[in-house]
Amino acid sequence: MQKVYFKTFGCRTNQFDTQVMMSKLKDYELSFNELNSDYIVVNSCTVTNGADSSVRNYISSMKRKNPHAKVILAGCGSHSKGESLFENKKVFGVIGHSEKENINTVLKNEQPFYQIGDLEHIDSTIVEEFVGKSRAFIKIQEGCDFACSYCIIPQVRGAARSHKEETILEQITKLANNGFGEFILTGTNVGSYGQDHQTSMAKLLKKMSQIRGVRRIRIGSLEPIQIDDEFMELLTEPWMAKQLHIALQHTSDKMLEVMHRRNTYQTDLMLFNKIASKGYALGTDFIVGHPGEDEKEWEEAINRVKELPLTHVHAFSYSKRDNTVSATLKPEIRGNIAKERHRELTTIVKAKNYAFRREHTENLEVLLENGKDGIYHGFDQYFNKIEVQSSEELSANWVLLNNVEVSHEGNSAKI
Ligand code: SF4
Q: Average model confidence (pLDDT) for the chain?
């Protein structure tokens, strides 16, 4: 049997897509060694120019190290760089997102092929990824309708489209029957779930919560404008994880406009205060060093970060992506300035997280992952990590912790 190796670049969505391809491989053997494989499927990422270079370098290195293998380009990079790599004979074949479920047939092509497909397709396979034995990530939608200036994703993953509700619920029921208690909903723009099927995230959550065994639900990320009254009403439900990740990307109004975002700071602030008043921890994404972020904008932005009830941040330093609006904007921000702003931002949010944890040391509901040598890790309902020491076997168990120890490094407890 011929061997196929998968190399994945980029985000969790790409990792899921690789799993879809792996699950469809029938007439080939899955290989874990790229050097003795007959095919190397490169599930590529194209989010920045740097990501493109990493993919190109990997393909060149494989041509040197395993010249016998046929290299197939898949993933987001197929839609941005696939044509030129194919024309320049850097890869044997190119497949677009809609073709990945056909991987088993596609690989049978004896002639070089360029099968880019379309960007309207949604896979019939819903992929789950398991952490330990009781936490599962479920991809519920694909694509994005926003048009943020810095982002290439809508061009390479297409418009937002959702998986069917009944398929999602069926999948969750199966997993819950097998002992999974926590579900994390993910996708390219998760909060747009349901708009193409006349339903909503709130309706899906309510239905999920009625499935026996579903104990806690998290949503990977939401946009501020996706949070409606129907969703707000669910915040007091016991099965909602008490942390939301709401992507702001910036807190300066000028920068939000430059980034072509749909949120504004004053409404973000009101929203965050309202949700925090219900006892929630709040995380966000933030891009520092985007073109146009001069001293004045940064000062305004960082002062606003101080007033926001934030507990977690994914801070990204802006990195150029050709064929986006941002790539044409000036003035660019020097790397060392962006690095310093990144540090300033994460230091502030880290201090806020510490203060939050110090106030939340009781009634922490923690789902523990697999442990080793009596040490277990898990997350509480506020998405804070905790280390638990115990002589009991607690893998995949829920524990209720009181009086946990809080340090700058993290929370810990002994049972
Ligand atoms: S919301 Fe903006 S940043 Fe996120 S995928 Fe869509 S366009 Fe990109």
A: 95
Give the other-Cβ count within 10 Å of 405's Cβ. 12
pLDDT value at position 287?
98
Average pLDDT, stretch 24-51?
A: 96
CA nearest ligand 1 atom 8, residue = 151
> Could you give the CA distance from residue 358 to residue 353 in angstroms, rounded to a whole number?
9
| Protein residue with least CA distance to atom 1, ligand 1 | 146
**Residue 258 burial (CB count, 10 A):** 20
pLDDT for residue 16: 86
Instruction: Report which of 332, 327, 324, 260 is spatially closest to residue 293, judged by C-alpha positions.
Output: 332
Q: Which atom of ligand 1 is nearest to the CA of 223?
A: 1
Q: Could you read off the pLDDT of 120-161 as tens digits, one per residue?
A: 888 887 766 676 667 898 999 999 999 999 999 999 999 999
Rounded CA-CA distance 378/394 in Å is 11
Average pLDDT rounded to a whole number, residues 198-210: 98
The pLDDT score that the predictor gives to residue 132 is 64
Cα of 243 vs its chain's centroid, Å: 16
Ligand 1 atom at shortest distance from the alpha carbon of 147: 7
**Residue written as token pair 């007091």:** 236
Record the tokens describing residue 288, joined without a space: 């520092």
Cβ(368)–Cβ(181) below 8 Å: no
Ligand 1 pocket, Cβ-based, cut-off 6 angstroms: 144, 146-148, 151, 153-154, 188-189
Burial of 352 (0-12, 13-18, 19+ CB in 10 A): buried
